[in-house]
């Protein structure tokens, strides 16, 4: 048996994440596989699809998890190397539970698991992870039936065909597309998905390498976009696409080498949906720009605001019958993709919009950028208590300038007399306090960032 403290250190709000050899090892993962199998077996599941990214530890952990699953009588379909959204495709089309081994954008020493039920339905703290924690702490009873079987299946081609059926790019004008795969799974999926389309792909860091020798696979950090920004300009590309390690997120760079806000991407994809489905519901998390719900409303849609995190977004997608959901971190969710997130599917929507008209990307996206924003700024603090204390200090400092405060996820402060707002929240996956600021001008954003970070990092 394990202590609750050690288990909850790695089983987070919506996934499993930790350092290999410190937080995670094969035995822990085998037990987690057994606990997950018990959870979904009790719900009538018989099979779990398992995929893994290119990290050195991923194949061993995926096999250990499979051993745990089969020890509880469930079968395993092992799809091998895959992006996270390919695993969701497997869960959705094979109608089975799923487990993806990846630490997404985290550094090389990390690994983890993203879990889902059949149809790619999420497993979060309130929808199964708490039960898994209890099993790991209390001990997993032995299963007295026959063990399950493991089979292997290659789904890359079927996954690519499915995406191309959702967004038909065959008729767009030819585009030159620079792609930074960050040595992650985008280098595996992009060539197959974009094969035969009117796209000239300029590849950057397509070699699969979980040590991330060129830069971290986290495009949310501006430093990790620099190589692609230069590459877009050097190659004369119409657009640049930057994927994270497991390729479920995609950031966009325009032809000038400038980043396109994920909120602007949310807005244009939402608009595309609302043109075909008037009155539809669109989900956005509370960190996206105010421009997102504004544009949804202007196009006759219904905007629903939710917490940060894929399990929360996916649940809200299902609860509200939403057709699309977007996050500030470049996670984009689609009703036709089992309410799951797919970086490459989001990219295909942008390519369809860009290739369906003659303007360059910067001009096409200009009308979606209404406010200045800080992007997500991270501060590493000693512990959860320090995070609470610094957050309260920020609230106190702004008390006489506050229009409203909500605590849907961290604290979101609307400032009086201006559209400006900021959010301070603890990360669900790392020991960080995250800050996002939006205001009408960059000068106002910079002033707010300086003041708030001065308090957080004091």
From TrEMBL:
Q: Which UniProt keywords apply?
A: Isomerase, Magnesium, Metal-binding, Phosphoprotein
Give the UniProt record's GO annotations in the biological process aspect: carbohydrate metabolic process
For this protein, the record's SUPFAM superfamilies field holds: Phosphoglucomutase, C-terminal domain (SSF55957), Phosphoglucomutase, first 3 domains (SSF53738)
The molecular function terms in GO held by this entry are: intramolecular phosphotransferase activity; metal ion binding
According to the entry, every stretch annotated as the Alpha-D-phosphohexomutase alpha/beta/alpha domain falls at: 11-127, 159-257, 263-371
Q: Does the keyword Phosphoprotein apply?
A: yes
Residues forming the Alpha-D-phosphohexomutase C-terminal domain are 376-453
The question of whether Transferase is a record keyword is answered with no
Which cofactors, if any, are listed as required? Answer: Mg(2+)
The family database entries (PANTHER family) matched by this protein are listed as:
PHOSPHOMANNOMUTASE
Family per UniProt? Belongs to the phosphohexose mutase family.
- Name used for this protein in its record: Putative phosphomannomutase
Source organism per UniProt: Corynebacterium efficiens (strain DSM 44549 / YS-314 / AJ 12310 / JCM 11189 / NBRC 100395)
Query: Top-down, what is the taxonomic lineage of the species of origin?
Result: Bacteria, Bacillati, Actinomycetota, Actinomycetes, Mycobacteriales
């Amino acid at each position: 048996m394990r202590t609750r403290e050690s288990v909850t250190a790695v089983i987070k709000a919506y996934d499993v994440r930790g350092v290999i050899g410190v937080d995670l090892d094969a035995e822990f993962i085998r037990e987690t596989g057994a606990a997950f199998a018990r959870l979904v077996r009790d719900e009538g599941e018989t099979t779990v699809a398992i995929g893994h990214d290119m990290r050195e530890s991923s194949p061993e952990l995926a096999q250990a998890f499979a051993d745990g699953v089969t020890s509880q009588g469930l079968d395993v379909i092992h799809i091998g190397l895959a992006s996270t959204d390919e695993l969701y495709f497997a869960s959705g089309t094979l109608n089975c539970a799923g487990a993806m081994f990846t630490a997404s954008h985290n550094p090389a020493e990390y690994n983890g698991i993203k879990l889902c039920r059949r149809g790619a339905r999420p497993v979060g703290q309130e929808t199964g992870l708490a039960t898994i924690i209890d099993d790991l702490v209390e001990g997993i009873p032995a299963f007295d039936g026959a063990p399950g079987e493991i089979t292997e299946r290659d789904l890359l081609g079927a996954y690519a065909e499915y995406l191309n059926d959702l967004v038909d790019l065959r008729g767009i004008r030819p585009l030159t597309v620079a792609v930074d795969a960050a040595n992650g799974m985008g280098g595996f999926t992009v060539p197959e998905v974009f094969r035969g389309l009117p796209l000239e792909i300029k590849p950057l860091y397509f070699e699969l390498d979980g040590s991330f020798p060129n830069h971290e696979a986290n495009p949310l950090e501006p430093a990790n976009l620099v190589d692609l920004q230069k590459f877009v300009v050097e190659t004369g590309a119409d657009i640049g696409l930057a994927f994270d390690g497991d390729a479920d997120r995609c950031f966009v760079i325009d032809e000038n080498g400038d980043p396109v806000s994920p909120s602007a991407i949310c807005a244009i994809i939402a608009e595309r949906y609302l043109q075909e489905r008037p009155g539809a519901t669109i989900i956005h998390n509370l960190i996206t720009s105010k421009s997102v719900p504004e544009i949804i409303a202007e196009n006759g849609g219904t905007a629903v605001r939710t917490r940060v995190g894929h399990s929360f977004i996916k649940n809200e997608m299902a609860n509200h019958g939403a057709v699309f959901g977007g996050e500030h971190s470049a996670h984009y969710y689609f009703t036709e993709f089992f309410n799951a997130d797919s970086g490459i599917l989001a990219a295909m929507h942008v390519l369809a919009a860009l290739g369906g008209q003659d303007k360059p990307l910067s001009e096409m996206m200009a009308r979606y950028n209404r406010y200045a924003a800080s992007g997500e700024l991270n501060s590493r603090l000693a512990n959860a208590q320090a995070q609470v204390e610094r957050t309260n200090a920020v609230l106190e400092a702004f008390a006489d300038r506050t229009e409203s405060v909500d605590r849907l996820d961290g604290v979101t402060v609307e400032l009086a007399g201006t559209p400006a707002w900021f959010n301070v929240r603890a990360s669900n996956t790392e020991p960080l306090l995250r800050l996002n600021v939006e205001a009408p001008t960059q000068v106002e954003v910079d002033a707010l960032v300086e003041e708030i970070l001065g308090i957080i990092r004091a």
